[in-house]
């Protein structure tokens, strides 16, 4: 990979971040349009019970997230030996086709399938683009490279999601997905023009990538992402009805709240990249504690206008500060399986997305109100802290055990100690 000037490196990073922008738009635009989608695709249920209709429409969020969960490890493992730029371009074509299908298919069931398919390339794109961005940034700056790609997703929540939500509210939700498909097409052109070709990993094999699943730590860290971030998505998936029914603001205020979430994501994403390069462990611990705090602010202040905006900013900031650290942690514990580890991060977060959206919809449908997902989120985020402690506890015991086995009174050196991640 040869980029000789700062300008060429910047253009390549911007092109990769554009993919994050488009993915953020396609993933999160449904959050602000669930009432519109429910009214259009589930008219009978919505007419009887708007709350139940919105909760049912939330399956679209879960379907996309499940697509990410399935697609991330599958595509990453199968394509481990492929040239990275070519693979990124193929994934972008998949996004275009699936997003267009989401915009034009006539029934809820078919749109549900389209959203699942749209999620398949998500994790593989972020995983491979993060590796490419890290190579562009250079040694010792992996966290910043990951954060650069994720920054596109964060900016999407400042500009893309609110703007496209406004388009969907005024011109129809199908038009909103049409706009997103154009974003993916523009990203394809930018990546083709500015991202350099990179040599494929000659040592990569499907078997080597799949060996990552033998590591208990890989599963534990994935559990951290899934459980911990379920708390954020339980609230974010139903931000539109929360703003309208708890705070009492009009539908037109929803895009403004989404802008504030996005601003928080930009701040948190930049900060998280820097912190991850300093200490992955401290970033995860303090980040999860901060997420719990943000959810508490939402619970106790969402009935006021200033409170819902403050909670939105804090939720955005805390939710985007942690992913670079979790992805770095996964890549460390997965050993040589770097491609699949980078993608698994997004599988984990989207398990959290699906889990949060499903459980959040369940407590709403059960009649507990639109603040119930925030209470649920606090429980999930605290469980994420427990999983983090388990991961580092297992690591400490492994290191101590390896240290005790390095020498023996009778036989001398046995094996080298395992380094601490």
What is this entry, summarized?
By secondary structure, the protein is mainly α. The chain has helices at residues 6-41, 43-48, 50-57, 59-78, 84-104, 108-119, 122-137, 142-171, 173-194, 206-210, 216-236, 239-247, 254-278, 280-301, 305-321, 323-333, 338-365, 372-404. It is built from 18 helices and no strands.
Characterization of this structure:
The protein has 421 residues and is mostly helical. Helices cover 81% and strands 0% of the residues. The chain is built from 18 helices and no strands. The protein has helices at 6-41, 43-48, 50-57, 59-78, 84-104, 108-119, 122-137, 142-171, 173-194, 206-210, 216-236, 239-247, 254-278, 280-301, 305-321, 323-333, 338-365, 372-404. The longest helix is centred in the first third of the chain and has 36 residues, at 6-41. The chain is globular, with a radius of gyration of 21 Å. Mean pLDDT is 81; it is low at 406-421.
Blueprint of the fold:
Layout: H1 6-41, H2 43-48, H3 50-57, H4 59-78, H5 84-104, H6 108-119, H7 122-137, H8 142-171, H9 173-194, H10 206-210, H11 216-236, H12 239-247, H13 254-278, H14 280-301, H15 305-321, H16 323-333, H17 338-365, H18 372-404
Features:
single chain; 421 residues; mainly alpha; 0% strand
Helix content: over 70%
Runs with pLDDT <50, length 5+?
406-421
Structural class: mainly alpha
| Largest sheet features | none
Shape: globular
Secondary-structure element sequence? HHHHHHHHHHHHHHHHHH
- The total beta strand count reads 0
Number of helices: 18
Cα radius of gyration in angstroms: 21 Å
Average pLDDT rating: 81
Strand content: under 5%
Distance between the termini: 27 Å
């Amino acid at each position: 990979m040869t980029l000789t000037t700062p300008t060429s490196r910047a253009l390549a990073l911007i092109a990769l971040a554009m993919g994050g922008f488009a993915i953020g738009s396609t993933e999160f635009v449904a959050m602000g349009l669930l009432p519109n989608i429910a009214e259009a695709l589930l008219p009978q249920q919505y007419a009887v019970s708007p709350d139940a209709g919105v909760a049912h429409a939330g399956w679209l969020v879960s379907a996309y997230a499940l697509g990410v969960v399935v697609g991330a490890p599958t595509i990453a493992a199968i394509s481990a030996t492929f040239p990275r730029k070519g693979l990124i371009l193929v994934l972008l074509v998949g996004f275009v086709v699936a997003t267009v299908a989401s915009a034009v298919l006539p029934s809820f069931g078919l749109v549900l399938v389209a959203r699942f398919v749209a999620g398949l390339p998500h994790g593989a794109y972020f995983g491979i683009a993060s590796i490419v961005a890290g190579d562009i940034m250079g040694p010792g700056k992996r966290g910043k490279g990951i954060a650069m790609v994720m920054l596109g997703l964060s900016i999407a929540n400042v500009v893309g999601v609110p703007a496209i939500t406004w388009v969907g509210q005024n011109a129809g939700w199908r038009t909103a997905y049409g706009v997103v498909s154009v974003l993916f097409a523009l990203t394809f052109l930018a990546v083709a023009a500015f991202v350099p070709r990179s040599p494929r990993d000659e040592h990569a094999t499907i078997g080597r990538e799949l060996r990552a699943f033998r590591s208990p730590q890989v599963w534990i860290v994935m559990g951290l992402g899934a459980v911990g971030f379920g708390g954020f998505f339980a609230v974010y998936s139903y931000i539109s009805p929360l703003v309208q029914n708890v705070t009492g603001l009009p539908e037109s205020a929803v895009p403004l709240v989404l802008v504030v979430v996005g601003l928080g994501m930009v701040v948190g994403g930049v900060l998280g990249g820097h912190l991850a390069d300093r200490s992955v462990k401290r970033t995860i611990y303090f980040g999860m504690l901060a997420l719990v705090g943000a959810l508490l602010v939402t619970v106790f202040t969402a009935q006021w206008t200033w409170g819902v905006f403050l909670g939105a900013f804090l939720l955005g900031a805390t939710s985007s500060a942690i992913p670079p650290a979790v992805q770095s942690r996964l890549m460390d514990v997965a050993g040589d399986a770097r491609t699949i580890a980078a993608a698994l991060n997004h599988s984990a977060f989207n398990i959290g997305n699906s889990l949060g959206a499903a459980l959040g919809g369940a407590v709403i449908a059960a009649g507990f109100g639109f603040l119930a997902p925030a209470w649920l989120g606090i429980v999930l985020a605290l469980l994420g802290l427990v999983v983090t402690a388990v991961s580092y506890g297992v690591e400490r015991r492994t290191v101590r055990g390896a240290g005790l086995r390095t020498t023996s009174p009778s036989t001398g050196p046995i094996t080298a100690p395992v380094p601490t991640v």
